[in-house]
Amino acid sequence: MAESAQPHLAAHAGGSGRPNVLTSYDPRTGEIVGNYAVMGSNELNRTVRAARSAEKWWAELGFSARKRWLLDWKHSIARRAGELVEILCEETGKPEADAAIEVMLAVENLDWAARNAGKALDRRRLGSTWLTRNQRASVGYLPLGVVGVVGPWHNPVFTPMGSIAYAMAAGNAVVFKPHELTTGVGVWLAESWARLAPNQPVLQVVTGDSGTAATLCRGRVDKIAYAGSDAGAREVIALCAQTMTPVVVERNGKGTMVVHVDAKLDDAAEAAVFGAMANAGQNSTGIQRAYVADSVFDRFLELVIEQARKLRPGADKRASYGPMILESQVDVVRKQVRDALARGGKAVVGGLDSIREPYIEPIVLSEVPEESLAVTGEAIGPVLIVNRVANMDEAVLRINATGNGVAVSVFTRDVHSVEAFAEQLRVGVVTINSSTAYAGIPALPVGGVGEYGQGHHHGEQGFKEFSRTLAIARKRYQAPVNLSTFDRRPRHLRTATTIFRLRHGRWG
Fold first, then answer.
1. To the nearest 10°, the Cα dihedral for 27, 31, 34, 35?
2. Is the separation of the CB atoms in 332 and 378 below 8 Å?
3. pLDDT at 159
4. In CATH, what number does 255-445 get?
5. What dihedral angle (degrees, nearest 10) is formed by the CA atoms of 211, 217, 220, 221?
């Protein structure tokens, strides 16, 4: 994909007949984390064939049996969560607490998917009209078959689990391609399933670089779930179009906060700083910018400055957050900050000198023009933009104009007015008086609007992304008024016409 291997992950060519090898390094220390094969088309084709065989067994189990298997898998992951947390810390540089929270959120999604797939997808009866009352209709959802999941580097456990768990609960087999920077996480997850069901490869991992991901997209799986950059998303969609493979996309970027005149400013400032800076700003559920009502702007900015100055990145346990995982993203942050300042934005915390690879200290910018790259670009990094607005109508205009519609957090005491406000926004999620916590609600569907996202993750909609609809209609008895024949009796048509006029020809 467009996110190529960076200096802390190198590819080495082996001898004749040997695959290339990726060597992964801890971004904090430069130490080797692991070596992984770069799988080619032959290995990938064998993996997909094995997945198709396993999917037949898995689909035939039904919802109840799959639930038991998935809950057993959940218990296995939870018991050995310390191992996964350690790998996650090594590959991303996250503080242990952040890594543990990510694993817990992933397990919660797996648990919810296991317990709720049957309720969401099992066959249910549908109503009919007076014309078809002799028909019994129902709709159910069947698995697609084999789903390819291409994972990101910033939340390499939680984000792909939002596709893996829901696809498996719906009855699909999954071939998981983790990002090359976080390959060890993907290998651990696949091995944890293999220990549980060694002869049924319902979940498999393929390792390698962007070429391996491209091969998976061309591998005639039944759907691809991708999470990553804008450029990567476009490439995936183009590759899948060649085989008419459907795609569900979760693209990078962060959301927006709106601070009303009556907001609890302490809470709003805390949420804004956490949303912008947590995981070094590498959370797609985070906060890119805050639009603040003019009358409370100065006080809100003071509180944000106070909060942000307390934070310190680093590799030790006391650090607020870790390094930039994708090294090329450091240059993107530098370019965005430089552009914002050149266009008249003000650095109120940090600035260009805050960028000390692989770490970026907190940066807070204010009064940044809307055409700046820091506003319009993909927001990944510990940077928060705080801009003033005259009123909430102006906030709506600015949010919709940018077009990166993922989520908006609204801070106000007048919670009853938010629904009407939310309906004016072209975004997928609106939260009230909190920022990133919605990601921990498995039942809540998450999807972008426009170019930001394609399809949904989590919730019932997440199950249906990995299912096909099967509708069934059955004739129960001979209809007293039968119009579905060339041998229609005149009195049947007169009766039908009379009933139609009584039902639809009058107001009320």
1. 100
2. yes
3. 95
4. 3.40.309.10
5. 120
